[in-house]
Specification:
Elements lengths: L1 H36 L5 E5 L6 H17 L3 E5 L6 H8 L7 E5 L2 H8 L10 E16 L8 H10 L5 E4 L5 H13 L4 E4 L3 H9 L5 E5 H9 L4 E5 L25 E9 L4 H15 L2 H9 L12 H22 L5
Parallel strand pairs: 1-2, 1-3, 5-6, 5-7
Antiparallel strand pairs: 3-9, 4-7, 4-8, 4-9
Amino acid sequence: MFAKATRAACAVFRGIAAVPVVVVGIALASAGAHAQTFPSRPITVIVPFAAGGPTDTVARLVAESMTKTLGQQVIVENVGGAGGTRGAGQVAKATPDGYTLLLHHIGQATAPSLYRKLPYKVTDFETAGLITPVPMTLIAKPGFEPKTIADVITYVKANKEKVTYGNAGVGSASHLCGMLFMAATGTPLTTVPYQGTGPAMNDLVGGQIDLMCDQTTNTTGQIKGGKVKAYAVTTKDKVPSLPDLPTLQASGLKDFEVTIWHGLYAPKGTPADVVAKLNQALGVALDDPKVASRFADLGTEPEAKNRRSPEFHKQFLTDEVAKWKPVIEAAGVYAD
């Protein structure tokens, strides 16, 4: 009887011990299945700004190439408002299956410091790769009096009460650049916020506002077409597509450097193999000569290969959050 009981107990133990192995096997098979079946339907990339702006331009160039690689339509949807936080918040709450993504710029790193009531956390996203670092330009309405950037700095200091600076809203790239320009020159200007870069640019071209700082993806065509007056670029080095423009650093604003980088995100919990597949398709897009050529026309270039991985993007985002926090706190600019 003792032997039978022992054999029965051992059989039960073997059955219990076998369960986790089966469960783990099922889990691994399920994880691998994601990459094999993804994507099986169209993917939506949310751009948290109005159509026609610089981030929208980047998104549409990348989406067209990713569509070919993934074999499913990659659709760009504009969900503007609240400085980009409305669209980002929508993606943060989306099902984490890789079918709803976010393409955002530097605002992903500055929003935690700018907004007192942010409806999401930076950690609510999976990083899928950096896309492109975009320089910015300081531009003015046609016929603006100063001839050089040095003249601009002198002019705004002497006329700060009447000079107007336009931006695409709190948290936008143009807002951040303007905030740094005012801090660097020690000159607060009358700020005119718009709901998007498009309306702001229209008013600048029309002479309703004096100055604006915006990405080369949005300003290069206007500059080359003579529709706006350009003074300087915000990068440490000169921009090849705009060789006549000096840098703000070389023009007397020491350590002034703003580059508006863009990245692709998925909701937190998106399977790692799906993120990897998205990252691979993004890499193909950035290596596409047509995309690179179009980026060059817009004054930018694809992100370097050694900076495209989800892991690099994650650490870079963490570093950027830490970098901008003291800048924004010192400026004392917040939004609800």
